Amino acid sequence: MVVLDYGSGNVHSAVKALELAGATVELTADRGRVAAADGLLVPGVGAFSAVMQQLNAVRGGELIERRLAGGRPVLGICVGMQVMFENGVERGNTTPGLGEWPGVVDELDAPILPHMGWNTVEVAPGSALFDGIEDERFYFVHSYAAQRWTLDAIAPFPVPRVTWATHGVPFVAAVENGPLAATQFHPEKSGEPGIQLLRNWLRTL
Amino acid sequence: MSVATRVIPCLDVAAGRVVKGVNFLNLRDAGDPVELARRYFEQGADEITFLDVTATVDERATMYEVVAATAEQVFIPLTVGGGVRSADDVARLQAHGADKVGVNSAAIARPALLGEIADRFGAQALVLSLDVKRSDAAPSGFVVTTHGGRTETSLDALAWAREAIERGAGELLVNSIDADGTKSGFDLELIGAMREISRVPVIASGGAGRVQDFAPAIAAGADAVLAASVFHNGELTVGDVKRALAEAGVTVR
User: Fold this and answer.
1) Which domains are assigned to chain B?
2) Which of the listed residues A15, A96, B69, B214 has the most CB atoms within 10 Å of its CB?
3) Chain A CB within 8 Å of residue B210 CB
4) Contact in structure between B90 and A46 (CB atoms under 8 Å)
5) What residues make up the catalytic site (chain B) (predicted)?
């Protein structure tokens, strides 16, 4: 596994959690290593615009795009998931994302923000990521999220599996879409269920 | 469905050792913060907070090792407070495995620090920690203190919290100096007042003594509860607190 090293905050835990889930992990942004890995984990915390800037500095978008074009698995976490959408809107400013999925990442309409803590999820039927951990809580910490999912199935590709959560309003908590999977919550901070999710992801590779 | 109320054990650490009375049975080394954090993780803690009460720069380096060692074994969010003076301090703590930092007196001395941290790491990584005392001198009746409550500042606690949120604090850790150590329950008026002015999560701290002390703090408006000595001295487990909260109708993990 490669955890994409592009200056994102706490990646230490992502590396350790993947190792605990059974993977051999390297933290790098080296083009060859990223391309060759069995799986690429894209972490991300902080502002959407800042994360995009940091990603662009290592040509992260191109690295991700190239993997996906070849059907090579990528897992985005938190803002690493948000940047897969077309746009992020923060304080009225729109930042283009990687555009792997249509839609916008916008502030949640909730009495308390950030959404911080352990919440339940409505798991997509047939989900491989949540196999055996459908009823667990996962650790979220974010104020923004994709609140609509508009990508339909395009033959011959399988239907995207979309898992939802609610904080004030419903939002996308996880997506499994061919080689590209992502979670808005932090599996690496969600105790044993989070490790199990990573194990499930490794099993799909 | 809603986000669960968090129960957060807090460990005071100096020179790599837990400094408040720890009286756990079956611990190989009761003063080892890593082992204690893992114990709380196993008990179902929702987050862990380390408070670095170290005095010297040399000892601070030890804190980074403690954070790194903990993050290798404890897969829940880790907050580190104490000694954070700059955005670079935050970068270093995050590189060692911390998710959030608590900022207290450094932000009082230089409020711009809050914006610098929030801009670089996001509001979700920044906890404003307040040591609050009741005082007629403050308009709200609550004043901000430093040095563990020994020194009163001229800051009204509610006005300061409001300003800190505007500057980018993503969470408030509200510690009542009056209630701290009394084990007679949280300062519910203080929590209620903070809830009223805050759209960010509020963590109640100070005064926990019995399992039944926690639910009223949630009813008063807290999103999370933090305690130290009742956990360390073995009086209560995280599980005990969660059971009591659940019985009172509070959603817990």
Assistant:
1) 6-247 (3.20.20.70)
2) B214
3) no
4) no
5) 12, 131
Alpha-carbon distance A106 to A94, whole Å? Answer: 9
Both tokens of A140, joined, read 């979220």
Which pLDDT belongs to residue B20? 67
Q: Which residues of B are catalytic?
A: 12, 131
Q: What is the pLDDT averaged over residues B51-59?
A: 77
Alpha carbon distance B125, B224 (integer Å): 16
Q: Which residues of chain A have pLDDT under 70?
A: none
What is the pTM assigned to this prediction? 0.96
Say if the Cβ atoms of A117 and B94 lie within 8 Å. Answer: no
| Contact assessment for residue B24 and residue B234, using Cβ atoms and an 8 Å cutoff | yes
User: What pLDDT score was predicted for residue B207?
Assistant: 94
Q: In what helix (H) or strand (E) does residue B68 lie, and over which residues does it extend?
A: helix B57-71
Q: Confidence band (pLDDT; 50, 70, 90) for B1?
A: low
**Any catalytic annotation for residue A78?**
yes
Rounded CA gap, B224 and B79, in Å? 13
CA angle A145, A193, A4 (to 5 degrees): 60
**Which residues of B are less than 8 Å from A116 in CB distance?**
3, 6, 124, 170-171, 201, 223
> How many Cβ atoms sit within 10 Å of the Cβ of residue B249?
9
